[in-house]
Design goal:
The protein has helices spanning 3-8, 13-26, 39-62, 97-101, 103-117, 121-124, 183-203; strands at residues 30-31, 70-78, 85-92, 125-132. With 219 residues, it is of the alpha+beta class. The chain has a domain at 27-136: Alpha-Beta Plaits (2-Layer Sandwich). Strands 1-2-3-4 form a four-stranded mixed β-sheet. A hairpin with a 6-residue loop joins strand 2 (70-78) and strand 3. Helix 3 (39-62) packs across helix 5 (103-117). The chain is elongated, with a radius of gyration of 42 Å.
Amino acid sequence: MGMFDLLLGKKPASAGKSRNSRSAGANSTQFVASQQLTQSSGSQHALRKDLLRVALRETLSRNGIPSGWVSAEMLRTSSTKREPGMHVRFLLQHWDPRLMLHGVALQQDFMNRLLALDPHAQAWMAGFSWQFALEDDSPCPGLPHPGSWTAPVVGAASEPMPIAPTTRPAGIIEGPAMLPKPMEEVRADLERLLAVRDQEPRRNGDGGDHFAPTRPAGL
């Protein structure tokens, strides 16, 4: 820098660059490589990674999701606004639309299980991200028509729920019901039916064959 620059009040370019770099670093969260960890922070980092692995294993097994469908990368973060923490990147290794449909619930369940293992995990847990790591993406559907994102969903109107029948006091039978008859009533009905059949030949005359009156068999 020359004498005229000092008289005009110009600042060195290096000072401006260093100030900009410090302000940018103060408002950003960066991922730190594992080689830059000290021995004390490295042991704490390893312990937190173990907690995250256990929480993920419990989340998948308790919800019936195969362990090979979802894995995770545990990344250490650094920020001037908070203590060094961890960032979890979920890796989807198997295509199933239900994983995307229930992704929010899966992430919440993971966080709840992590808090059960370490109640202070909220202080060092920096966030989550999702990444597709599929070996074969051919089963994945393509993008739909652009207008389908804002179009009304067909059949979205919910149908009214059927009203459950009200319960009446005990002893009242709803609708027609066939009650079993006693044996005496069954025998009496059978005898009346056979008596009617025996009277039919008498009404038609005495001609023709004569048969003995029909008698009911013993029950």
